[in-house]
Design a protein that fits this description.
Elements lengths: L3 H10 L1 H13 L8 H13 L3 E4 L8 E6 L4 E7 L28 H22 L4 E7 L7 H7 L8 E8 L3 E2 L3 E2 L1 E10 L15 H15 L8 E8 L10 E10 L2 H22 L2 E10 L6 H14 L6 H11 L5 H9 L4 H4 L16 E2 L5 H5 L4 E7 L10 H4 L5 H23 L1 H17 L21
Parallel strand pairs: 3-4, 3-5, 5-13, 7-12
Antiparallel strand pairs: 1-2, 2-4, 6-13, 8-10, 8-11, 9-10
Helix pairs in contact: 1-14, 2-4, 4-14, 6-7, 8-14, 8-15, 14-15
Length: about 475
């Protein structure tokens, strides 16, 4: 395996190994910090391929690093494998859970992690075949969905010696992104009141649920007075036990998002003050409980340009008529406005956006755009130069974190996007070895960004990493 085409061909030849791994993770969805089957599956696979495995990265029992080779540069691939609650879905084009209320891969992390692993292994095979020297490292990263696993891993110094990192995400389009994501703070806001009989003695009670509802109302009024990048959402996780008991405890769970750390800190402060006010109004006790955070994404444009060149050389993803028809059936359950949103966001011709599956390569035209989502890959991007790649694995109208994303995650549609991403990342990695000046340029761009905006880990040093005993190790 000597050429870039050889790398792409090798991935095609070994595709079944990776689709089987992805399917096994899809069929056994595991929530944050408890990805026991997925992490063991991937670690065992890479160990059998000659990688040295190190577990418990950052104090997380389902986080591991797999390393092969020696010396510089160190090129890393960051995988994920956690699922989302409540998104169980059959492999079909209409919403129907496999198990009602069970978890599912609504963000495609079964594809994400396996695609990064495939790229790491292909890059390793190229290094071995050509005799080029480098260290290839794959990170199995838990708890991207709400747990900030990579932040704990980075806090431990696990990423400090990396020269460049590749990551990708399932989605609607094929693009090497130059845009950013929002940072996020996660809090449980807890209220403690006093129980009483809601009919006979209501005056004796102090409702913690009233406090939660007043806080949520106050935050909804706050939305008018924040900058356009701010997003705030919540659920009520404890609303009492019975209607005839004044709730003595209640809790609401918040995600507070903003692009700049100072804005995020200020909006979080204001949300907490609203909680304090709600407690005053209801004569209850208020306790903000910090959960986790992640930082906005720093896209490395040098690496994005490199990946775009590779994508142009590979060409578009070719989807069959049957795949397009399946995606069209999924689209029928969603709003057609989603296509117009894609066209506007990525400056696409509406004719292209109107396809049920968008196979074309989209230019990296999103510089300056801030996506309203968040990811702990943002924190990794402030420790090592990183490019976020997106490839098509979803029907064009399907929403992320919904059944429609799960429905293509174990089909040829998802496989094609995953293997395309693996090819782009692996070939981009070997290009950094063949053209060290490109790696130097990526490093220089990264150093300049950090000089202007130094990174600070958002999770306090004294907060222990959440960890569960790994039953399979």
């Amino acid at each position: 395996m000597q050429t870039k085409q050889d790398v792409a061909d090798w991935l095609d030849e070994h595709e079944i190994r990776f689709t089987q791994m992805s399917d096994e993770i899809w069929a056994n969805p595991e929530l944050k910090f408890q990805e026991f089957k997925a992490s063991k599956l991937q670690a065992d696979f890479l160990e059998a391929e000659g990688f040295e495995i190190t577990w418990d990265i950052g104090g997380l029992s389902t986080a591991f690093a797999a390393e092969w080779g020696a010396g510089k540069p160190v090129i890393a691939f960051a995988g994920e494998y956690d699922a989302l609650p409540g998104l169980s879905q059959k492999q079909q084009s209409a919403p129907e859970p496999i198990i009602e209320g069970a978890s599912g891969h609504g963000c495609g992390h079964n594809l994400l992690g396996t695609g990064c692993l495939a790229a790491a292994l292909a890059f390793k095979e190229w290094l071995a075949a050509t005799g080029n020297k480098a260290t290839v490292r794959y990170y199995g990263c838990p708890a991207e969905e709400g747990g900030s696993g990579k932040v704990y891993m980075g806090r431990s110094g696990a990423f400090d010696d990396i020269d460049a990192t590749f990551n990708w995400h399932p989605g609607h389009i094929n693009q090497a992104s130059k845009g950013s994501l929002l940072g996020v703070n996660r809090y449980h806001f807890r209220f403690k009141g006093r129980t009483s009989h809601a009919a006979a003695d209501p005056h004796m009670g102090r409702s913690a649920l009233d406090a939660v509802e007043l806080m949520n109302i106050g935050v909804n009024y706050l939305r008018e007075h924040v900058s356009g990048d701010v997003r705030i959402h919540y659920i009520i996780t404890d609303g009492g036990l019975a209607p005839n008991i004044v709730p003595g405890t209640a809790e609401t769970y918040y995600y507070i998002r903003a692009h700049h750390p100072d804005t995020l800190a200020d909006v979080t402060r204001r949300v907490i003050k609203i909680g304090e006010g709600a407690a005053l109004m209801t004569e209850t006790e208020f306790a903000p409980v910090y959960i986790s955070s992640s930082t906005s994404l720093l896209s490395n444009e040098t690496l994005a340009d490199l990946q775009y060149e590779v994508m142009q050389a590979l060409g578009p993803i070719e989807f069959t008529e049957a795949e397009q028809a399946y995606a069209a059936q999924i689209n029928a359950h969603y709003s057609e406005d989603n296509k117009r949103e894609l066209a506007n966001t990525y400056q696409m011709d509406m004719k292209d956006a109107d396809q049920p599956l968008i196979g074309n390569v989209i230019p990296s035209n999103d510089k300056g755009r801030v996506s309203p989502g968040s990811s702990d890959i943002g924190d990794m991007s402030w420790i090592t130069p990183l490019s976020m790649l997106n490839t098509t694995t979803w029907a064009s109208c399907a929403s992320a974190h919904s059944w429609g994303a799960v429905a293509t995650g174990s089909t040829s549609i998802g496989y094609k996007g995953m293997m395309y991403a693996a090819k782009v990342m692996a070939i981009s990695a070997l290009e950094l070895i063949l053209s060290p000046e490109r790696l130097a340029a990526a490093r220089a761009e990264f150093a300049d960004a950090l000089a202007r905006n130094p990174y600070q880990c958002p999770i306090p040093a004294e907060l222990p990493a959440p960890s569960y005993k790994h039953p399979l190790r």
